[in-house]
């Protein structure tokens, strides 16, 4: 089997790791990315086609050239804080872009898509852990842009026979075991890379946002899932669709909650560097606790997250330390 898969946003963090997993599973990824936040050097397992998902004609040409059998759609603007400042950019890129892509896929004879959604579509938790039936009330334009695409995909399935799997990630983290690719966001807002860059001396100190939450140590709880476990789930979701599976949604989280204080302890232990941490006010829009109920992905896809928080921090540390070294050369 060497079916070609169109991977939008495949030059970014999660998409590049999924390309690695696709190639290991015998698929041929073709990355479609405008490189606004991606890196050509992350495209190592197939061709790179530079283009924007809002450019239907360019998509038509790429689909005609490579004849993919399905689309994995990662391309999006992802910064939650930016989305509050510039909602129009997010709706244009994430919603108009997704609709343009779906239409191009259909014109090109593609009948299935795996879509990167997020736990941010749930908003504040009503109950924990959160399953896929949890109410969806996003707190930001970013989360709402993702929910709108989920809803459009549901209608495309019902009324046009275009099948999809929406994968709602919790906190993607970690890196390729061999250090070939990793997390490189500009600007970086995620806790793990920021703490590791502080441990490396690239940042002054780590700001811990809020120690007055109603959690076991007062800091916010998140569900960190290794990016290669996420990648494995994408390959499974793709095979599910190629086998004729019907449109559905899965949570992708490890199912375990970690507080920010516990995360910092793990990072200090792994790096063996006692970097400075300063408590700061809560970050606006942050939920106190987000943990996935991942039973559905386990049962339907046979998915099993196998990497621990230690694996996440170890692989991320290796990646960020190598990035730091590269800067010194
Ligand atoms: N990182 C996380 O923890 C997380 C959590 C939940 C959901 N997600 C979702 O996963 C997906 C990937 O996230 P990531 O962390 O890898 O982000 P990323 O910024 O590293 O990757 C996104 C990629 O999409 C490309 N892109 C953006 N807009 C484009 C456009 N209009 N046309 C073509 N390419 C475009 C960027 O250049 C980049 O390579 C996103 O859809 C994001 O919303 C990520
Ligand atoms: O410098 C920092 C950065 C983060 N945090 C804390 O660490 C936890 C994790 O924060 P991240 O920014 O790493 O991740 P989020 O949970 O905010 O974000 C995740 O969920 C978002 C939606 O809520 C988006 O989907 C995003 O892409 C995804 O990583 C939060 O409690 C946050 O307040 C800090 O204390 N200091």
From TrEMBL:
Cofactor section: NAD(+)
Keyword tRNA-binding attached: no
Entry keywords, A to Z: Carbohydrate metabolism, Isomerase, NAD
InterPro entries: NAD(P)-bd_dom, NAD(P)-bd_dom_sf, UDP_G4E
Domain NAD(P)-binding, chain residue ranges per copy: 6-314
Keyword Hydrolase: no
GO MF annotations, alphabetized: UDP-glucose 4-epimerase activity
Top-level lineage group: Bacteria
Pathway: Carbohydrate metabolism; galactose metabolism
EC number(s) reported in the record: 5.1.3.2
A Pfam family reported for this protein in Swiss-Prot or TrEMBL: GDP_Man_Dehyd
Catalytic activity: UDP-alpha-D-glucose = UDP-alpha-D-galactose
Single GO biological process annotation from the record: galactose catabolic process via UDP-galactose, Leloir pathway
Family: Belongs to the NAD(P)-dependent epimerase/dehydratase family.
Subunit structure: Homodimer.
Protein name, entry field: UDP-glucose 4-epimerase
Upper lineage: Bacteria, Pseudomonadati, Pseudomonadota, Alphaproteobacteria, Caulobacterales
